[in-house]
Amino acid sequence: MNSTPNEQVPLADNSIIDLQEVSIFYSGKIAVDKVSFPIAKNKITSIIGPSGCGKSTLLRSLNRMNDFIPGVTVDGMVTYGGQNLHGSEVDPVEVRRCIGMVFQKPNPFPKSIYKNVAWGPGINGYKDSMDELVEQSLRQAALWEEVKDRLHESALSLSGGQQQRLCIARALAMAPDVLLMDEPCSALDPISTAHIEDLLFELKSRYTIVIVTHNMQQAARISDHTAFLETGKLIEFGVTDQIFTRPQNQRTEEYVTGRFG
Asked: What does the pLDDT read at residue 81?
């Protein structure tokens, strides 16, 4: 599946989210221009492109996080389960429960490790064993063995890499279908980055993951599909191996080989 700017990409048979002619504006100024591509279930999709190309803006449209930014408007459709996520009848809080997000910099709450994971389910009326949910979420985030004896210590006492895995555990505790990640390793050292990448490989058997990254090597290592954006337009979308070794668009080749960006 390849695309030139403004050309619609066919929908995947196993897609969980479909972007169809999505345009995003900041106070009338276009930031994302008629982008269309599918996000396949239980796969990792990377969104790459130079700074300011609209990657993070597009990512935030997938769970209505742009709603918090004054002046942002969205045209086109982002469908999840056949429903337009930007429809007036859709509850954005429910969208964010189903489509979780991990941000660029670790942002644990100034609470204990335990309360960081338990907070979301608690305010949403979780009725089963909270202890089991906390342990399960920390295990899924490959953090349990490191923190099981210090659950009631401050989350701020953790290292940067541990804090980011805690944020992943916090998102997983809400049992999302999809996990969005906005450059989750950019503030981490290489060892912590490797931990996160290994974790993503394990998580995709249970979750669909969409990641924005500036790191071409990371996108090539971890993702199944890659979307390349430039100046708000989708230049090319396809299987990651093809994007990095046999791109159909010259701009894609120039970007992934480091000639600009």
From this structure: 85
